[in-house]
Amino acid sequence: MLGGGGGAPKERRHPNSAGAATRRLGVGGRGLVIAIPYFWLLLFFLAPFLIVMKISFAEFQVGVPPYTPLVEWVDDQYLQVRMSFASYFYLFGDELYVAAYFNSLKIAFVSTLFALLLGYPMAYGIARADKSIRNLLLLAVVLPFWTSFLIRVYAWIGILKNNGLLNNFLMWIGVINEPLEILNTEIAVYIGIVYAYLPFMILPLYSTLEKMDMSLLEAAMDLGCRPWKAFLKVTLPLSVPGIVAGCMLVFIPAVGEFVIPDLLGGADTLMIGKVLWAEFFNNRDWPAASAVAVAMLVFLVVPIMLFQGYQARQEAKAKEQG
Amino acid sequence: MSQQARSLQDQVARTEKGEASDLLKPLIQIEGVTKSFGDFVAVNNVSLTIYQGELFSLLGGSGCGKTTLLRMLAGFETPTSGRILIDGQDMTRVPPYERPVNMMFQSYALFPHMTVEQNVAFGLKQDGLPRDQVRQRVAEMLDLVELGHLGRRKPHELSGGQRQRVALARALAKRPKVLLLDEPLGALDKKLRERTQLELVNIQENLGITFVVVTHDQEEAMTMSTRVAIMNQGRILQVDTPHAMYEYPNTRFVAEFFGSVNIFEGPLLEDEPGHVVIGCPDLSVPIYVGHGISSREGATVYAAVRPEKIALSKEPPADATYNTATGVVEDIVYLGGESTYLVRLDSGRLVRVDLQNQTRSSEPELTWHDRVHVSWEHSNVVVVTS
Amino acid sequence: MTNRSPFLISALAFGFAFLYVPILLLIVFSFNESKLVTVWGGFSFKWYGELFQDEQLLGAAKISLLIAAMSATLATLLGTMAGLIMARFGRFKGRTLFSGMITAPMVMPEVITGLAILLMFVVLEELTGWPDGRGITTITIAHTTFAMAYVTIVIQSRLSQMDDSVEEAAMDLGARPLKVFFLITLPIIAPALVSGWLLAFTLSLDDLVTTSFAAGPSSSTLPMVVFSSVRLGVTPKINALATIVVGLATLAIVMAGYIMHRQEQQRKRAMQRALAEQDAL
Question: Does the N-terminal peptide bond of residue C223 adopt cis geometry, omega within 30 degrees of 0?
């Protein structure tokens, strides 16, 4: 909508009056357009989770498929339901799993924090840069995302190895005499996660910071706020939506990360994604892998809901502003 | 205003009273239309008749329902209740692509991926018109809006004023029975707006197509329209010619929205068929009004006096029994052709008076802190009850 | 206003160095004569030669490209519908669940989605006989499912930026809704469709975890082959592959950027011309 006084936008944007074009598609057309992607997502996204849930209550057996059926006809008469909590007891009984969960949360949390500490000033710097180079800088943030994730993680192996580039460099300038043990430790995992997910932190931060009216800061300074205080009192609170989104986008996938701990972490770097992978591919214990997945989901439900709530709010806001 | 428009106004007035022999046929009949969005009632039981050849304005502030009403005429919204007839046919539930009306959007809504010619041709192609006819009509339309030389440009290669004219040409190309215009001049700067107003009226009169214009600008409504409907909170308050709307507003809201006005509130003292008298605490004398109203004595009513209809003088008026008061000039706003005087009455009430600047002298006859008498003729007051 | 605080500039410098130095090192060492990745042994193309003789890698690359093209196309189709639903359909029964299913795949850990979709295939096969074994089809379906979420977001945000009165205008001029979509909406959002497709293509090409779950024994994709070789340690051949991937991605992005920049310039010039004409009136 262009400016002008007409009160139309408010009336027009009323939730019930969305898109006349589609409302008039007719019930058949509209229904079909909804049905196709809806059906796809139900079949290949939602239903699979229910199956994971179901199989997590089954028992491991050797065979195809490698789990016992949950519901069975006995003598063609009785419907027998066998729910086994064996996988869950196993899960919570074994310290290894509990430790893996907490370690995953810890690693994800710390990495998210570092990504925020590095990403925020970068996003701020880009948002405040000259318009002419802003897009170029943004492109530079996104570019690694278009190259391979696997290769970017792989790149760190050569750098962090005992006889790798970082150690060679540090020894060459004389900071250390012996190579530091970085690869195959948790530190390498932190570095890997921050590196791989940094663009996901920067982009939402940038988009809130860029939208922010610079005159707000100027007004704060005009009213006697020192720049640093103006930042704390104006910029930071206003960028909270970006911080939340960025942190969610890093934290949630980081909890379940597999490639990074597998390639950069050591044998003792326990992360839940790795455990699930091992249960499934090495032990072929599908019920256990499913139980691990269900437990991981439970941990992630709160942050995922937070994220979706945020998405919904952004959507509503975008609609309001037209 | 052209003579043609004036005679149409007279004809409409006679038709509405049912006394003409040449009764006009109603083109748009809106019958008891209500539109609600959830709990919010955007348009509340509106009835309205618009005649062939009119340039009709829907005037009101933000959120008054004027745009919703226009969108119901176009078919983008369906009334919650009530009927809409166009040329005698019930259009209430007819989709937009089957209605004999076209719309010019506030944002112009030009198709960005099509040239000017393709934009104008779009509607004609939907009707399946033969190619050479489409080409001919497009050329005709572009000539009409003086854009014949820009046919191959894309919308983003045009200025705001040019885009507005493309939007007009596109909406007129199908020769609709009614053209709906949503804030047609809203996106133009002031100078361009004044010129475009005249162009729009000329085109309308030449083509004889009925225009329904939504606007929030009372000056625009006043200069362009044959008739105006003022809307507030989903209801129509008054439908009249601009002249009648200004001189005889039927409510306080209309009086204040359509031009500026001084409103004096007070009890009705005398209520005779030919005149009324209102007691007004803001003035030292009562207000005498030269027309009757239907209200009971003692009820609170409002007397409305336009600022340019008030006289200002250092001498007391000859007859000081009614319609006068004394005060001090508090502020003078020089506006070129006229000056606005703000007079603080002895009661503390501020009154606005507009006076023509008929001489060039930089020293006005009246100046700050002068003690003055304000007064007006009893024929220049209008009483409204709400 | 630009803020040239030294703190921000050094943060940007450090951040970009952090992002790019590892990639640059990869590229440099792909031209290394020595087999030792960390010791420079002279300039050479020999790892590129070896790369192009590795039948397994080339075969996997072919499979990956095929899957990426198919799933990107499917994801664009489905994602466009979903984006349209989200941006234009207003309220309908089950909208909340739908929007949840759109955003969830983007944040869900891949090990979970991968495991889930694999189990789905197993159950489906048990019940219906389809899909018969796992391979290119199942990988394509899995990739389509997570890529369509990204396409949906791209299309949805483009649609909500679009002035919807343009669609109303077309309808007002007599076009039926289906025609409005194909004549007006689709051409206008075409650039978003292209970027959605490219995004889906890249995501598919790059995916390891979901693919590993959905893949059968005969359908190893490029990331799977790379992963199993990387697990054994750093090899210069992978460096060469990485250089090619980075090079192609950079080329594509720089080209896209250049085209967009030029269009923008043209648009600006046209705008100025129109304004100049208006002033001349």
Answer: no
CA of B76 to nearest chain A CA: how many angstroms apart? 6
Which residue ranges does chain B devote to CATH 3.40.50.300?
3-252
Query: Does residue B170 belong to the interface with chain C, where contact is any CB pair within 8 Å?
Result: yes
Instruction: Determine the Cα–Cα distance for residues B372 and B327; give it in Å rounded to an integer.
Output: 6
Does A210 reside within a domain?
Answer: yes
Q: Which of C174, C175, C274 is facing B158, going by the closest CB pair?
A: C274
Structurally, what CATH architecture does the domain formed by B260-384 represent? Beta Barrel (2.40)
Domain count, chain C: 1
What's the token pair of residue B263?
């409103």
CATH of the domain at C212: 1.10.3720.10
Which residues 6+ apart lie within 8 Å of B51 measured at CB?
B8, B11, B12, B15, B24, B25, B26, B27, B210
Q: Which residue of B has its CA nearest to C270?
A: B157
Q: Give one DSSP letter per residue of C116-140, joined into a string.
A: HHHHHHHHHHHHH--S-SSSHHHHH
How far, in Å, CA of B118 to CA of B137, rounded? 12
Contacting residues for A218 by C-beta, under 8 A, at least 6 apart: C1
Helix (H) or strand (E) holding C197: helix C186-206
CB B100 within 8 A of CB B178: yes
Between the CA of residue A159 and those of B360, C9, C228, what are the distances in Å? Answer: 86, 25, 19
Q: CA C147, CA C132: separation in Å to the nearest integer?
A: 23
Cβ-count burial C114-140 (b if 16+ within 10 Å, e if not) = bbbbbbbbbbbbeeeeebeebbbbbbb
Residue-wise pLDDT tens digits, B218-248? 999 999 999 999 999 999 999 999 999 999 9
Q: What b/e sequence results for B162-185 when a residue is b if at least 16 CB atoms lie within 10 Å of its CB, and e otherwise?
A: bbbbbbbbbbbbbebbbbbbbbbb
> Would residue C88 count as lying in a domain?
yes
Asked if C93 is an interface residue toward chain A (Cβ–Cβ < 8 A), one would say no
Any CB–CB contact under 8 A between A322 and chain B? Answer: no
Would residue C49 count as lying in a domain?
Answer: no
Q: Which chains touch B (3 or more CB pairs under 8 A)?
A: A, C
The one-character DSSP state at B309 is: G
- Give C206's contacts in chain A (Cβ within 8 Å): 148-150
The whole domain housing A242 covers: 88-321
Indicate the CATH number for domain B3-252: 3.40.50.300
| 3-state SS, residue B58 | strand
Task: Specify the CATH number for the domain of residue A195.
Answer: 1.10.3720.10
Q: Residue B305, SS3? A: strand
| pLDDT range class, residue A16, cuts 50, 70, 90 | very low
Give residue-wise pLDDT tens across range B130-161: 999 999 999 999 999 999 999 999 998 898 88
B96 with A24: Cβ contact below 8 A: yes
Look up the ipTM and state it. 0.89
Which contiguous run of DSSP H or E holds residue B303? strand B300-305
Locate CATH 2.40.50.100 in chain B.
260-384
Q: Do B186 and A5 touch (CB under 8 A)?
A: yes
Q: How many domains does chain A have?
A: 1
- Residue C3, domain member (yes or no): no
Which structural domain range is residue C91 located in?
Answer: 54-223
pLDDT 10s digits, B53-88: 999 999 999 889 999 999 999 999 999 999 999 999
